[in-house]
């Protein structure tokens, strides 16, 4: 291959490659031919329109009646005014209001399988007008309870309050006999205060100056400061004699 042929082939290969433009390149609009504006296609239904309800919506809005039967025997309760969009939590709420049981202790079963609280009736595969659910009470809750029956916690608190009132009545009726000749013993607080008074007196300036510990500390300080033990002892003795003549 001659050099001219190689050069032509190389230049032809370079022409086929895309041209890399710099970041600050600005195209000249006069070099481009005029183009018609591009119009976006119009949407078929840009906004939802209210129309006649479909069969699917009517099926979702139809009323469903749930029959709740306790697992260990008890009164069967019927919950109505439900829809396919009602959740298991809604069913539990109405059952708790009618039965008097605690809502957090209630567990609903559908076909012997636990039903989650956030699941709707339609998500559980219910499409009829009636559904039968089984009620399982968790935590040893009672089987059947009437809505007007008081809860055990309320009864227990009332019993405690009654017993406390009965126990306090004789104490309030009997007055304490006080002997003026024999006063009551001092409290522990008074004893502590009495014991701390001598210690407080011992921390006064006069008591500190009378102690030998102070003069020995003063002698050690003077000896260390003057770097002469003899001079420190003489000065401490002078200070002590001057204080004694005071």
Q: How would you describe this protein?
A:
Strand 3 and strand 4 form a beta hairpin. The termini are far apart. Among the domains are: 58-173, Phosphatidylinositol 3-kinase Catalytic Subunit, Chain A, domain 1 (Ubiquitin-like (UB roll), Roll), CATH 3.10.20.90; 189-244, GTP Cyclohydrolase I, Chain A, domain 1. It has eight helices and five strands. With 246 residues, the chain is α+β, with helices and mostly antiparallel strands. The chain has helices at residues 3-16, 55-61, 88-99, 152-173, 188-202, 205-210, 212-226, 229-244; strands spanning 64-70, 77-82, 106-110, 113-114, 130-137. It is flat, with a radius of gyration of 49 Å. This is Ubiquitin-like domain-containing protein.
Tell me the number of helical segments per DSSP (H or I, 4 or more residues long): 8
Tell me the structural class. alpha+beta
Gyration radius, to the nearest Å?
49 Å
CATH class of the domain at 58-173: Alpha Beta
CATH topology of the domain at 58-173: Ubiquitin-like (UB roll)
Q: What is the assembly state of the chains in this entry?
A: single chain
Q: What composes the largest sheet?
A: 5 strands, mixed
Question: What is the overall shape?
Answer: flat
State which percent range the strand residues make up: 5-15%
User: What is the H level of CATH, i.e. the homologous superfamily of the domain at 58-173?
Assistant: Phosphatidylinositol 3-kinase Catalytic Subunit, Chain A, domain 1
Pfam families: Get5_C, Get5_N
Biased composition (Basic and acidic residues): 22-31, 174-194
InterPro entries: Get5_C, Get5_N, Ubiquitin-like_dom, Ubiquitin-like_domsf
Protein name: Ubiquitin-like domain-containing protein
